[in-house]
Write a structure and sequence with these properties.
Elements (H helix, E strand, L loop, with lengths): L10 E6 L10 H4 L1 E8 L2 H10 L4 E4 L5 H13 L4 E4 L22 H11 L3 E6 L7 E4 L2 E4 H9 L3 E3 L4 E3 L10 E9 L17 H5 L8 E2 L3 H7 L3 H11 L7 E2 L1 H8 L75 H7 L14 H10 L3 H17 L2
Parallel strand pairs: 1-2, 1-4, 2-3, 4-5, 11-12
Antiparallel strand pairs: 5-10, 6-7, 8-10, 9-10
Helix pairs in contact: 3-4
Length: 387
Amino acid sequence: MKWKIIEMEMLRGTSLFSNVGVAEAYFKDIGIKIKVANEIDEKRAAFYSHLYPETHMICGDITDNEIRSKIVDCSIEHKVDFIIATPPCQGMSEAGLRKEFDERNQLIFYAIDIIKRVNPKYVLLENVPKQLTTKIEHNGEIMLIPDYIKSELGANYNFNEETLIKARYQGVPQLRERNIFLLVRKDIDIKWEFPNDIDEITLEEAIGKLPTLDPYLREGIDFTLEKFPDFDKKRIKGMKVSKWHFPPTHSWRQVQWMQHTPTGKSAIYNKEYYPQKSDGTRIKAHHNNYRRQRWDMAGRTITQNNGVISSLACVHPGRPIEGTELYSDARVFSIYELLIVMSLPLDWDIPEWANERFIRKVIGEGIPSNMVKRIMLQLLNNIDGVK
């Protein structure tokens, strides 16, 4: 399906739990102007304001009544007709340490409060699939989060029928799945559902032609060059593609384990070069820890901890090195590769003050940009169709 360029008055939006604005990366291109944003963390708010200087950023805790009133008043003043809310998912995420009635899961209360007070025409609520089965306590009653949302907003809004969406079928080379509620106010005669699926983009298609990189070893440059004589040559070639395609830093022990790990496999199953403690004891880990990704499918979900080899399936697929039993690219994805796998613009204007660890974290916290773009284009085309 070809999307047509929307020639219409921009949708005016408010972004709650905005992080650094990963979801909004293509909004300006398609006719959506985020007028108000809220983020509790000062560094994330500064990153957001660097990317979107025209947006009124309200940095503060959404649970604070005064902050929430500022968000509401500013949204009404700017005649906001769309709200996107992406509450933190760590309390529900498969990659997090889930506990019953995690306080982070209660943040949905405050998003709902703002939605009810602003009364926008359209709402996008995003979280992990686990949200569908997560319970919260409200006014002494235990209920599922979806039931709570519908009990609070169902009288005024129509909801989408299918709420689970897979990024791999929305132009994103990543297996990320999300639960997204799409709401349309009942006085508006528009149906808002997900766009049709498109073909999956494999990692081979997405990053397979990028220059290979050797990791920089924590033991220092001399040791790095001893183990990887072509380190500098590869680094220079990579940075000609982008200043963000530079070698990640790892310890030699972990790099050695991954050198002996084939594409798509985990080092924990290696017979000799397996993750081990300093005394040689085998490290017990999840089957997706110390795992290389696969070339023949979309990448696994990018997490906040994507810079660490021991994290969940975040190591480059690598390729067999001719004449050896080793595999190349014993490292995590470069930041440039993360931009591709998250479907962010390749010229994304990352502020110079942001360090690598912080950049990786905020990218891993985001919702894939192209998936959000396609969802919003579906709405914009429906709006355009009833004019």
